Amino acid sequence: MPQLTQTISPSQAYDASKKLILAVTPERKSQALSIPELATAGFLSAVPTTLVTAPVERAKVLLQVQGQAGSGTQYTGVTDVLKHLYKEGGIRSIFRGTGATLARDGPGSAAYFAAYEVTKKFLTPAGASPSDLNLQAVILAGGTAGVAMWAIAIPPDVLKSRIQSAAAGTYSGILDCARKTIAQDGVAALWKGFGPAMARAFPANAATFLGVEASRKVLDGLF
């Protein structure tokens, strides 16, 4: 997942979303969620985290592009960026690009968690539980989840970064940004950074899920 400090972790939001789906479908015959339900839980998990990550994403993008084209250093850190944005346009300026962030994280999280669960189920021997998978299987499932997420998240991520780094009024929304980006730079511009993202996706997310599963096993043993 996009790497940010959050008060609600993606895995916590995902677990809460799965419980929500079970709660609103009390007549179900099985407690096991289907693939569409897992994807829905993944999408829903992105909603609360986006409220936290969107302002930080905006600040991160501005920090990354400062100094380009001889603009010089304008900000000293995330807090400084947010202070400048608030003075410039209030809360609305701070949260610019939130819709684009959700357009990236919603479908991305749906693919992320669904791919992880499906891969774990595929790798689980008959009669065994996915929670008992070995280290290699968890690494493969986590890496597959990361690849699945970034395979569809790159275009909205590109648009999000353009919206958040552009001057106010440049784009009216994510569709307007997509139209102008394609008209100016071609469709290939939507996939800028695809190679590096894919190279990072497998090992980074394999490590993430390995840590999550290891922590759960430790906590289960303690409590």
What do these coordinates show?
This protein is mostly helical. Helix content is about 70%, strand content about 0%. The protein contains seven helices and no strands. Helix 4 (about 100-125) runs antiparallel to helix 5. The two termini are about 30 Å apart. Mean pLDDT is about 90; it is low at about 5.
Strand fraction: under 5%
* Coarse morphology: elongated
Number of E-type strands:
0
- The share of residues in helices is over 70%
Number of helices: 7
Order of helices and strands: HHHHHHH
Question: Could you give a quick summary of the protein structure above?
Answer:
With 223 residues, the chain is mainly alpha-helical.
SSE order and pairing:
Layout: H1 10-23, H2 35-65, H3 78-94, H4 98-123, H5 135-165, H6 174-185, H7 194-222
Helix pairs in contact: 1-2, 2-3, 2-4, 4-5, 5-6, 5-7
Give descriptors for this structure:
223 residues; mainly alpha; disordered N terminus
